[in-house]
Amino acid sequence: MAKDLQVGVLSLQGSVEEHRSMLGKIKNVKPIEVKSLTALESVNGIILPGGESTTISKLLIEFGLFEPLKQRIKQGLPVWGTCAGMILLAKDVIGENPHLGLMDITVRRNAYGRQINSFTVSENIPALSEQRIELPFIRAPWIENVGKDVEVLCSLNKHIVAAKERNMLVTSFHPELTDCLAVHQYFIEKMIRAVENNK
């Protein structure tokens, strides 16, 4: 592409620096902190990082970003939600009201238990990488049900932990906490296609 892709990381709370660091390792990508409307309007795609979904949702409202972010995603902005980001995007969240409510999935938050129950596994996910990749789970959700247009990318012990629908990608795990760029590169490739299609 003629100029760098502007890749936003929602920078209100959570694993912001980790995602920015990973994006900075990818050629022709410029990481952008998104905590203002101007920054949101400038990006070609956005990552909703792990953190605490209820807190991030409240901060989105406080910063005046909730509806603008929702509308941009509805209009096709590529978005990737990791962990809490998955919860933010889900149309249904067991035990609480949905937040952005855009992706046709039902999510159970903290499904893998508390911080002390965190773990990492190595899995082969053909849609994301030709190599096995590490999947760190930290107070992670999983997907209990998906709509007819949702493509399941990875299941672990019969629980869905990665999926996509149109311009939306979600993972229960945290690729930004590993040395593997595979999932970030997969998301960038989706963004490039979306940008090219909109020319």
From TrEMBL:
L-glutamine binds at residues 51-53, 109, 138-139. It catalyses: aldehydo-D-ribose 5-phosphate + D-glyceraldehyde 3-phosphate + L-glutamine = pyridoxal 5'-phosphate + L-glutamate + phosphate + 3 H2O + H(+); L-glutamine + H2O = L-glutamate + NH4(+). InterPro entries: Class_I_gatase-like (IPR029062), PdxT/SNO (IPR002161), PdxT/SNO_CS (IPR021196). Its EC number is 4.3.3.6, 3.5.1.2. Keywords: Glutamine amidotransferase, Hydrolase, Lyase, Pyridoxal phosphate. It holds the Pfam family SNO. One of its GO terms (biological process) is pyridoxal phosphate biosynthetic process. Pathway: Cofactor biosynthesis; pyridoxal 5'-phosphate biosynthesis. One of its GO terms (molecular function) is glutaminase activity. The active site is at 83 (nucleophile), 174 (charge relay system), 176 (charge relay system). GO terms for cellular component: cytosol; glutaminase complex. PANTHER family: PYRIDOXAL 5'-PHOSPHATE SYNTHASE SUBUNIT SNO (PTHR31559), PYRIDOXAL 5'-PHOSPHATE SYNTHASE SUBUNIT SNO1-RELATED (PTHR31559:SF0). HAMAP family: PdxT (MF_01615). In the presence of PdxS, forms a dodecamer of heterodimers. Only shows activity in the heterodimer. Belongs to the glutaminase PdxT/SNO family. Catalyzes the hydrolysis of glutamine to glutamate and ammonia as part of the biosynthesis of pyridoxal 5'-phosphate. The resulting ammonia molecule is channeled to the active site of PdxS. This is Pyridoxal 5'-phosphate synthase subunit PdxT. It comes from Caproicibacter fermentans. The lineage of its organism: Bacteria, Bacillati, Bacillota, Clostridia, Eubacteriales.
